[in-house]
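Fold Annotation — chain and its backbone

Fields — amino acid sequence, structure tokens

___
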Amino acid sequence: MVLLAAAVPSAAAADSPPLPEFGSQFHATWTDYTSEQRELVLERLQRAGVEWVRIDVGWETLEPRRSGAIQSWYRDLLDHAVDASRRQGMSIVLTVLATPRWASGRRSATAPPRDPDDFGAVMGWLAHRYEGEVDAYEVWNEPNSPAFFSGSPRDYAEMLRSAHDAIAEADPDAMVVAGATQYNDDAFLEAVYEAGGQGLFDVWSTHPYMGLADAPPETEDDGTMWTMDHVRVIRAVMDEHEDRDVPIWFTEFGWSSHSSSRHTPEWRRGVSTSRQASYLVRALRFVAAEHPSVEVMIWYTERNKDTGDRHEDNYGLLTRDLRPKPVYLAARRLLK
């Protein structure tokens, strides 16, 4: 605890700018959770001052055979995740991704649907089912990355239009979150505008991981999309398109706690657990001071994974067996 106190700045002064609302990814729909673990994680997130959870929904799992044919076991799992999150007072953003084969005609879940209205239909179903419970719906995850989406910005804009219209009809109070881009990709944002995306989202979201993965959050924008500070260009593009009142969210950000060597690629560098804790606090304060239009920041992720990939596995606020890491304690100290 002495080391942690030394590494993590003290709580913000009363005259400091208000911090963005803080959230955490919550992989509640993943089958490596038990029901008891889901409940325990949410209890611990609530104790740390987490206000938002971001829950991923696999379209290909929810509707694997045809439009409207909902898998009951997955629906029930999602119902439980939403209900449990609401009981803890959490706001919820559902992120929907992964195209079923029947919708795309291809084997890959990264392919866009042949008919964007198929995507709109499932988004409308979700918004109707969780009316008044889910606060926001995020259209896809990292659609600028081939790892998640093989379509074009125009394909994405067409899906966004269909999702926007369906959500607005089913739950007019729910927010439509677009983007979820890997890094602060202003070129993708501009392309979505050019494809007719204007007016189709209430929030633009990004995932501002550092390209140099152990770099501090305050690293000055170097003109590329690989810094948190490059969100200033995202803001400028939105302002140019008369979206000055549309906020930005970081729906993923974080640093992975693991050792690195001189042979480790720049984008896979880790940090110590104490530095991970410090960077979380510094990121929230930096964004509050320099980028006040970023209203929500969602840490990736709630607990360490077990994939065998050291970098991917160590972003968690909690250990794999749900024990608090220094980064969790730092968040609790700052936010509670």
